[in-house]
Amino acid sequence: MKAYLKNQFKGYTGKIDGCVAYYHPLRDVLIMRKLPEFIPNSRTEKLKEIMQNLGSIAPSQAYKQDFRDYLNLYNQLAVNRNNRLISWSNLYLKMLYAMQKAIPGVDLRTLSRSQIETQGLPCRTVSSAVQAGLLPPVSGYERFNKLI
After folding, report:
1. Domain ranges in the chain?
2. Neighbours of 96 (CB within 10 A)
3. How many Cα atoms sit within 13 Å of 57 on the Cβ side?
4. What's the rounded mean pLDDT across residues 116-143?
5. For the chain, what is the largest distance between any 2 Cα atoms, rounded to a whole number of angstroms?
6. Which of 22, 70, 87, 99 could be cross-linked to 13 through a Cys-Cys bond (beta carbons 3.0 to 4.6 Å apart)?
7. What angle in degrees, to the nearest 10, is found between the helix axes of 61-76 and 88-102?
């Protein structure tokens, strides 16, 4: 559902009467949707553990900037025009889930920064993730070599 305001201010976000409102920058619209109902189960517990663990990795600012720059190039590809990603963290999570699928010994619930560094996992840099096939190649990806 699209919400229309007479004097729309683009930065509005929040909860209103059981709904969530937020501005979508790529579509240039204010979106309003019903708040989802949270039903605890084993899948949500697993996701909660994964997200808490990934938050503890705390990538460096230079690594985040490499992801932001890579994301700009990724969104400019003709293939991705209809599937643009807004945030570097979306791409970061896609890469980590692809790594978990590609490398059998990796579990995102127990992954640590020291494990990434000692085992030389491909998520150490954006360029090594592209070379390992975890991220699609874009022109000039070789320059994104800041460590996590």
Report:
1. 1-37, 42-143
2. 20
3. 26
4. 87
5. 56
6. 22
7. 90
